[in-house]
Amino acid sequence: MFDSQIIELYFARDERAIAHTDAKYGRYCRAVAGRILSDRQDAEECVNDAYVGVWNAIPPKRPSNFKLFLGVITRNIALDRLDYNRAKRRGDGAEAAIDEFIACIPDGKRPADDIIALREVINGFLASLDRRSRIIFMRRYWYMCSTEEIAAGMKLTEANVRVILHRTRRKFAARLKKEGFMQ
């Protein structure tokens, strides 16, 4: 079933929309939640909560990219669950990635209108990176991969990945500062 057809089912308030969403994107959503949460049951609950979130958001929203829309909702719910659980994990899993990234972003004192500007700064920053650095940065901070997983996938040493991430975070913080999002 096409995404536009699934969205129309949501607009018609047809419960089959959730079943079609799960059939098409359930594995993707479980992977997104599973990358953030180490507990499979928590990840499954987040996916179910994401379906409720989509049900409540459509209508009025009509996402142009349904998979991305669903992924963002799933990711946000999983991050909320991780924050709720907040039990410190060893190693450099999702919680460490979040802590690293939060150290680079603005402190939330700016007006809500700046969210669009911040998105543009982030997109511009990602576009300015070389392909390897961009892939490593996204794997770490969007997909919540460990440095060990990134190193294996990119055929690099783990130390090399950590250095690249450290330098990229410094560049990101400098870009945010230059654009007026940090002092």
Give a summary of the structure in a few sentences.
The chain is mainly alpha-helical. It contains nine helices and no strands. The model is unreliable at 87-92 and 108-112 (pLDDT under 50).
Average per-residue pLDDT, rounded, comes to 84
User: Which spans have pLDDT < 50 for at least 5 consecutive residues?
Assistant: 87-92, 108-112
Q: Span from first to last CA?
A: 48 Å
Give me the Rg, rounded: 18 Å
The biggest beta sheet reads: none
Q: Tell me which oligomeric state these chains represent.
A: single chain
Task: Tell me the number of strands.
Answer: 0
Structural class call reads mainly alpha
Quick one: overall form? globular
Residues in helix, %: over 70%
Give the percentage of residues in beta strands: under 5%
**H and E order:** HHHHHHHHH
- Helix segment tally: 9
